[in-house]
Amino acid sequence: MSDELGDIPSRTLPVSARAPGKCIVFGEHAVVHGAPELVFAVDLMTQVFVTAGSATRLNSDDDAVRRNAYFRAALEASWKGGRPVEVRAISRIPKSAGLGSSAAFVASVAAAFGAATGGVGRPALAQRSFEIERAAQGVGSPGDTSTVVAGGFVAVNGGTGEPLWTVQTPDRRWEVRRVNDPGWVWVVAYSGITRSTADAVRAVSARLAAPGGPALLEEFRQVATEGITAVGRGDRAAVATLLRRNQELLREVGVSHPRLEALIEAAAPAAEGAKLTGAGAGGSIVALPMPGKEAELVRRLARAGALPFVVRPAPIGVTLLER
Ligand code: PMV
User: Does the CB atom of residue 98 touch ligand 1 within 6 A?
Assistant: First the structure.
């Protein structure tokens, strides 16, 4: 295990923590079945403020423990038998958009609770954040949560060198490795269509279990493996081609959407490549802008009805904020 990333230190309440969102470049869905994935932490942040309270609430909602499965799971995993806590969360990440709002919320709450209960190591925080997300969502991989804990670019089940950490479920094991950030600017754009990650994951799992599924999974594996290498060596032309190939595969397994296809088309004159990012069936796209055409790309996507963001990888994962 690498110790290049700092642990979350012990603190007394009140504690504030902040986590980035995430953008999947290659390999979503296939990662759930053990294939490689490339993800970066995006500089759209979620911040939580945790303080002792008279009752446990989230953003003043007395009923949040019942209503919010992520909050409930975070309390169960890392605040067992603890005193009542008030949590305030603010976020720049649109919800249910494929940009990691739930992973950022889970990791920042788990980091704050971890700090208030004696501190927590980053590998343990990655495992815990995944368990919380999985308890709330029922399905999925640790790609999102590990990325927002690690920051920067990470490969799940791919890349080279020592893993940062390994995340485990009873039936599977995922290795998380650092990938070099080539220093590019990216554009993500939210279609405005919300969807359920769990439903999309179940539909793709059924497709991959049907005839022809294993061959498709192998293609996902190849694209992501090549994509991790291409990003690591800063090869824009190869990345652009692989973004297009990955989108074809996602279309094939049924998680594209006419709105996403329209956004990818609208992006084309100003983007080297584009694809959906996250679970699909709505949600967002990611595009690699042609150098110097970032503003034009944003204009095109906004004109096509999306909510675009120019993003850079956030080099630092979840962290505590000074008082
Ligand atoms: O759309 P999101 O942010 O929930 O991303 C989901 C990514 C999947 O690969 C489809 C599921 C997962 O947990 O890895």
Answer: yes
